[in-house]
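Much of what follows relies on a compact textual record of a protein's fold. A record is reproduced here so that you can trace the correspondence yourselves:

. . .
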Amino acid sequence: MTETTSGSARGSRSRNGGGKGGAKAGKGLRVERIYTTPGVHPYDEVTWERRDVVMTNWRDGSINFEQRGVEFPDSWSVNAVNIVTSKYFRGAVGTPQREWSLKQIIDRVVKTYRAAGEDHGYFASPADAEIFEHELTYALLHQVFSFNSPVWFNVGTAQPQQVSACFILAVDDSMESILDWYKEEGMIFKGGSGAGLNLSRIRSSKELLTSGGNASGPVSFMRGADASAGTIKSGGATRRAAKMVVLDVDHPDVEAFIDTKVKEEEKIRALRDAGFDMDLGGDDITSVQYQNANNSVRVSDEFMKAVEQGDAFGLRARLTGEVIETVDAKQLFRKMAEAAWACADPGIQYDSTINHWHTCPESGRINASNPCSEYMHLDNSSCNLASLNLMKFLRPDDTFDAATFAKVVELVITAMDISICFADFPTEKIGETTRAFRQLGIGYANLGALLMATGHAYDSEGGRALAGAISSLMTGTAYRRSAELAGIVGPYDGYARNAEPHQRVMRQHAEANTVARRMDDLDSPVWAAATEAWQDVLRIGGENGFRNAQASVLAPTGTIGLMMDCDTTGVEPDLALVKFKKLVGGGSMQIVNNTVPRALGRLGYHEEQVEAIVAHIAEHGNVLDAPGLKPEHYEVFDCAMGERTISPMGHVRMMSAIQPWISGAISKTVNMPESATVEEVEEIYFEAWKLGVKALAIYRDNCKVGQPLSAKGKSTEPKAAEQPAAAVEKVVEYRPVRKRLPKGRPGITTSFTVGGAEGYMTANSYPDDGLGEVFLKMSKQGSTLAGMMDAFSIAVSVGMQYGVPLETYVSKFTNMRFEPAGLTDDPDVRMAQSIVDYIFRRLALDFLPFETRSALGIHSADERQRHLETGSYEPADDEDLDVEGLAQSAPREHTRLAELPAAPQPAAQPTPVEVHSSTELVEAQQGLNADAPLCFSCGTKMRRAGSCYLCEGCGSTSGCS
């Protein structure tokens, strides 16, 4: 990298307007180098290699995506290569038009940005434009930052040049507007993005129409929009659409809005108990309403003060504004907390706080957010995002390189603003608003990794100080560059009308920076750089105005976080200390996060101590009782999952520490344990308001019935266990003569885990005629389930002794769904929809001939791998394989039935659990059960990314970016 002074040019006073970027009002930017060398292209400074990308669904072995011979730098991980190749390369796979090199997609994007910058007068000379191109190329090539996904999808292609992932719509109190809402939302979903809107303008069900009848109310219209979203999905994919629905707390229908998902969750439970498939993505879940959106209530300071003081609060008519009903504020707040406790909805958005930081109040209020709740600005607007990889700015001495960070922020903000000059938008109204206000959303990822690497606990004063300093420097630098651009190509069109409030918000940011607490030698230099940036913002912005109405947000950084090889997404802490890593050429390994040794070194541990502690973590997955590690340092290694987890208030405190320097909001869900109370939810929502957070959602573990890997399901277990007995009665007439097993019989004892529930199965055989009885013991599951499983196994055993073929049981009981369900510790049966489903798949593999179970779709891991390699499940040489003998050739214990132990002990060296993501690794290593959905594309268990979920296997997200 070339060391330079600031890469910014202090722009002169702007001439008139130029908000659309067409006029060259000043001399143009002088761009200085950050990383590149004159005369050397960034591509020539890395080693390139060819790789084959083959992505499979491990559940059935099918190939989801395949492209061979793609070109990437050798430093890029397998995961990053897979995701960029499958998600961002354009052109039909297998055609000459298909992109095959990272160079192609970077050039496609960067050259478009450079050309637009030159066309709209951003650069002082062609030489400056070339430096801009090279620096942007270098930063993308080396994973220093990334644009959001729509840029990679669309820029430089023949399709519309949409660069935004976040949209806010508007709906008025008319049928025409409501139908427009359905249409606009559908078009956004079709393009793979998400949208949010506030329904509070729609009259409540307690008000009258002009015709004299009662209004339907917004909740009724939510049904139509929900059905539309569930049909269109997102981008034609199988995951649900991403949308946010907001209602003001003073709307007369607010209680009905709060209750919507609670009532539907009760419906899910009733239908599940009746035998319907109510898992996430199940066949019958579509009968449930309101499941395609996140819901949030907008609360004002007036309401929160009424809650604090125990006062009454008025609900107001939409047309006249008069109070038509008075409620107890505490009771309404309690109702919100109870609903969130029960089903995670609604979230909460603090309206007064949001609008206190609004730069453009003269043009309209901020009423809503995008689905992930980080973009908040005017109705009918959009925001394009980019995120910086914070670990790229950590020097070898574990200090943060504030100077380089600021230069990269200037580079990225310039590129983001240029993109609005050529961008297309899904509706004309959104295009007009975005071009007039030019909202940007620069942010960052890898904060959790950075804090750990520098020896800071996520929930600590030092950690919050460093995070706040970085956030302040980022947004201050972004607004400084925005002011400089205003001096060259003019301020945004809406600036003249909003100059005073925009300047007021800049002063609020600067004042917050001044009073922020400095903690140590790591954050103090960053605060100093941020202070200088904010001084420049006030000075230059006072002269030129600002090019952008908004500069920063903190997005989930799902797919682009994987593209940048980030250990943590957005503002999230580390998931766990042990990481799942895919290897070049196939396979995977488990490694202790690289941030752990850096953190230990920062804390003063010697090399030998570090090695011992890392070895302990590799074995146990946590730092508890690690040799030589001081207990006061445990908190540095607290994670989102595991033996030591960050408290819910720790997440809220981190959000409050960075919110004063984020133009928009923060995409984050505060996870709470299943044992959390409604009172604790109330405390989270109330303290977040006190601490100045703009928006918040909570998720209590296992509160969703439809979660596919929940370890709970008490109400379903006895019902499910009763069903097989009925099946035995139907088939008991196959052979009326019972053939009992001899006193001594060969047997197999198998330990298993399904969705976190442990059990043991003993299968005993006739000496010469296959399976004859099965005994099941459940560990730590209570007497009811244990008793039912005993009865079930006796019924099955008697049926087999009367001649019921094993394949009949297998065909009847495989694919039966009830809890416990989910991942198993059996590499041949990686996923089970219930304990019964697992048992009969395992029995089929152990006792049925290959042809019989293959017809039932049951194959071992080796057979599935053989299918991938050869296209056939069958062994290479059938003549050398005694298929019938395999059914009886498993290791056996010759024991009498009376001698069977009540609860057999698992083997000292259990079969290693096959995992496919970091979430599954943590579950397997620490015996946890993460409450997260499975990826619909590849079957991998997803992990949290802000308020969304991210699949580490294929890069799919449940959000809008």
